[in-house]
Amino acid sequence: MARFDESTGYLHITDLGRVASQFYIKYDTVEVFNQFLREAMTEADILSVVSQSSEFCQMKVRDEELTELDELHKMCEVPAAGGVENLHGKVNILLQSYISRVKVDSFSLVSDINYISDNSVRITRALFEVVLHKGWPLMAGRLLTMAKMLEHQLWHFESPLRQFSRLTQEILDKLDNSRLTIEKIRDMDAKEIGRMLRHEKMGKDIKAAAWQFPLLELEATVQPITRTVLRVKLSIIPDFK
């Protein structure tokens, strides 16, 4: 994170050190980043790296939590490396439970999941900045998606309309199964949406929610000025209520 010049006595910060400072990342966690971060990683790999961060090292795996952790593990979307008996496995399971909005019963697990949720977004955002500096576009996209999933408690394959509390779980499940995008819902008639989901009364509410979802229209014009200079004019128009 820093370079020390013995001849002059000067200390120079690196990009990695700057990111760690900005996001309050411990040096032990940076060591984990250096050890496990690669140019191509799956969601399971990313969750594994985040769960091994030293920010969670003061947590414990308690015997009375193992049964519930086993049940939560079965509901995980991706395999949780480490399993229920290891600390990083427990953190991984609770991270996925948090994204999935699974109800946790044990008081100690509720406390742990709140602590994990407070720190995981910051760590994931730091990882995003690290790979940006490394010039890894594929990983940058995946880490940004992971950060947004943690912020919104929403898997990327689920309907973004899950953020609207007025829509029932039954309707949200039907939206996921039908794979209706925000754009498709906007183009459809309220009655058509209701018939498709077999709940005609909700068609109007779903369409209204789709129009409240923030989308933007982008219009760009490019004009050459010289052989090496372009003028780019970008218009950003809000397309939502």
Automatic annotation (TrEMBL):
Alphabetical keyword list: Hydrolase, Membrane, Transmembrane, Transmembrane helix
Major location category of this protein: membrane
Domain SEC63 positions: 13-240
Membrane-protein topology: Multi-pass membrane protein
InterPro entries: C2_domain_sf, Sec63-dom
Recorded GO MF terms: DNA helicase activity; hydrolase activity; RNA binding
Enzyme Commission number: 3.6.4.12
Enzyme class: hydrolase
Any GO CC annotation of this UniProt entry: membrane
Compartment(s) where it occurs, according to its Swiss-Prot or TrEMBL record: Membrane
Annotated Pfam families: Sec63 (PF02889)
SUPFAM superfamilies the record matches: Sec63 N-terminal domain-like
Matches recorded under PANTHER family: SEC63 DOMAIN-CONTAINING
Protein name, as recorded: Activating signal cointegrator 1 complex subunit
Organism: Halocaridina rubra (Hawaiian red shrimp)
